[in-house]
Specification:
Length: 312
């Protein structure tokens, strides 16, 4: 879960985070607090593949913020739904519901009884998670937030945006399938060193293991082939996303794309070799366990304790 909140509500957001984590949810929260002018889309695009839900806190502070209303509208329509994310609006106290959410159920949350509200929120999230699992099993589009938009004085359903492709099976090699355009950063261009560089996230075919992520970063920092424009130390893996934090789109196209492919291929190969070694070790251990168990069974079958021992 990702918690979206106005910076005035940081203490409440952290309290909700603690309770959700106690309920065994993985929660991401911007410790710096999203400020007016920050982009929700850009802030979470590179981590969104790890997130199934966006919890949008509706408070006095967020309702009074034109920026928050704009971000909620983006989240409820095409901005996040392209990734199949479910937005869970939470109405704190008696705050008026924003126009963008008039046709969407907002879970109530009483600040004086957070535990009850979080219990309801957790139950709703688990229910939506089950619906997503059923949709994936059936090959259907992932359910997202059914927002409504005002159009010509009448409320009409917002069009369902195209869904991100379903993750590939675990036994398929990982591939780079595109750029997360919403997550591409902006250069500072303030004349300082590196100010023309920015973040470029790339979507993977599925979320890799921590072992794969480590192997990829190691390869990027010391690639088998690279150009003079290579930038070691800028790559990391977040969920199903590779992030190059300090480059440009031009550099990516002209210099980094080949290195990325090489490192993805090498990480795939090295992880496959690791898995094969692990499989062989497990098979040897299992054979030894079965041999030991056979020895126990055979010895136990021969032993008799109700008569004179033949061996004296």
């Amino acid at each position: 879960m990702f918690i979206s909140y106005a910076h005035e509500d940081v203490d409440l957001a952290r309290s909700i985070q603690e309770r959700l984590e106690t309920a065994r949810f993985k929660v991401w929260i911007d410790e710096g607090a999203l400020r007016a002018g920050d982009s929700l889309i850009e802030s979470i695009a590179t981590a969104i593949h790890e997130m199934e839900f966006v919890v949008a806190l509706i408070t006095d502070a967020s309702v009074d913020s034109r920026w928050c209303q704009h971000e909620i509208r983006l989240a409820m329509t095409s901005g996040l739904n392209r990734e199949g994310v479910k937005v869970l609006p939470v109405r704190v106290g008696d705050v008026p519901i924003p126009a963008e959410l008039e046709d969407t159920f907002c879970a109530p949350l009483n600040p004086s009884d957070l535990d009850a509200g979080i219990e309801r929120l957790a139950a709703d999230a688990r229910s939506h998670h089950e619906d997503r699992g059923k949709a994936q099993d059936a090959g259907e589009p992932l359910p997202t937030t059914g927002a409504m938009e005002a159009h010509g004085g009448a409320a009409v359903a917002a069009p369902t945006p195209p869904q991100a492709p379903a993750p590939e099976p675990e036994n398929q090699p990982i591939r780079i399938i595109g750029i997360v355009k919403e997550g591409v950063g902006q250069p500072r261009n303030d004349g300082t060193s590196g100010s023309a560089l920015y973040k470029v996230p790339l979507r993977l075919s599925r979320a890799p293991s921590s072992q794969w992520a480590q192997l990829f970063v190691q390869c990027w920092n010391s690639p088998p082939q690279f150009t003079t424009m290579h930038r070691p130390g800028i790559a990391r893996v977040s969920g199903a996303t590779i992030v190059l934090d300090g480059t440009t789109m031009r550099e990516l196209e002209e210099y980094h794309s080949r290195t990325l492919r090489l490192c993805v291929e090498k990480a795939n190969e090295q992880e496959a070799e690791y898995v094969e070694r692990l499989r062989a070790q497990l098979e040897r251990a299992d054979a030894e366990r079965r041999r030991h168990q056979q020895e126990i069974d055979e010895t136990a079958a021969r032993l008799r304790f109700d008569g004179e021992d033949e061996g004296g």
